[in-house]
Q: What sequence folds into this?
């Protein structure tokens, strides 16, 4: 019976659909991470500052990824299990709170659907094995980092650093690249943007990016190897430049308003994860 179940799970279609459903559920959790992690970080900073000043640490309501229970920010209505089914609940509720009818941001189902689709694609692309597991872990982390950076222009160490070390761990066994390439990729990823940062700061007196961007590129290098770094930097710069120009022209966004670079690094990292070798060969042939 157990062998029959395992054979059924190993069927490519069943494996892909199963990880797609798991991705939808994880996407719902990622919405919690995206919303609460920056608030948790801010609370920790305030508590640390109060402690350093010798002030009493404020006794606020506990805040973690598990507590308190999810609720409507407008009326405080607790979100029930039936109201928390990925994508389906948002559609059934017509994008509004069931109690006060306040609109619910469409970004919640977008994150869930994106996580589910990319998880299913990773399962289909890599097939059953450690590459699929590693690819999905990388996808989940990059999605969380992307939306946190959009909201706050922060790339939390609590995600970027474990992502880096996990990439090295997977490549102990050559899952995506050999360990030497992974270590050089982590070092090269960090130092390349670190050099750009200091070159720009010494030239202009301004900070062009944050340290979180260095760590994110280091993590991508740890997962995919140093050979993929030039492609990742090129793709992220092109996408970032196009989006930035569009925001300035279409959205009338001022040139002095900072644009987060993390989402474009993450997008480039995903492209490199699935098609890095093909894109690199195409780029080199054009050169």
A:
């Amino acid at each position: 019976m157990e062998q029959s179940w395992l054979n059924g799970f190993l069927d490519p279609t069943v494996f892909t659909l199963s990880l797609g459903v798991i991705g939808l559920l994880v996407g719902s959790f990622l919405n919690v991470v995206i919303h609460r992690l920056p608030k948790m970080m801010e609370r920790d900073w305030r508590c640390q500052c109060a402690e350093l000043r010798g002030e009493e640490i404020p006794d606020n309501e506990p805040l973690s990824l598990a507590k308190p229970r999810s609720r409507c920010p407008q009326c405080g209505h607790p979100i029930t299990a039936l109201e928390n089914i990925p994508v389906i609940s948002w559609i059934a509720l017509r994008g509004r709170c069931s109690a006060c009818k306040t609109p619910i941001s469409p970004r919640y189902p977008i994150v869930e659907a994106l996580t589910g689709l990319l998880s299913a694609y990773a399962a289909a692309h890599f097939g059953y094995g450690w590459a699929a597991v590693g690819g999905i872990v990388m996808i989940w982390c990059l999605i969380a980092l992307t939306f946190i950076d959009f909201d706050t222009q922060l790339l939390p160490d609590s995600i970027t650093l474990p992502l880096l070390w996990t990439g090295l761990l997977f490549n102990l066994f050559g899952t995506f690249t050999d360990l030497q390439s992974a270590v050089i990729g982590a070092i090269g990823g960090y130092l390349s943007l670190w050099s750009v940062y200091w070159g720009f700061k010494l030239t202009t007196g301004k900070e062009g990016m944050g340290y979180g961007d260095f760590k994110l590129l280091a993590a991508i290098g740890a997962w995919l190897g140093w050979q993929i770094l030039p492609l990742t930097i090129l793709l992220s710069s092109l996408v970032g430049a196009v989006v930035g120009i569009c925001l300035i022209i279409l959205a009338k966004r001022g040139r002095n308003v900072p644009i987060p670079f993390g989402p474009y690094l993450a997008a480039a990292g995903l492209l490199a994860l699935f098609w890095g070798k093909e894109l690199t060969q195409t780029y080199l042939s054009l050169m």
Summary: DSSP finds ten helices and no strands in the chain. The chain has a mean pLDDT of 86.
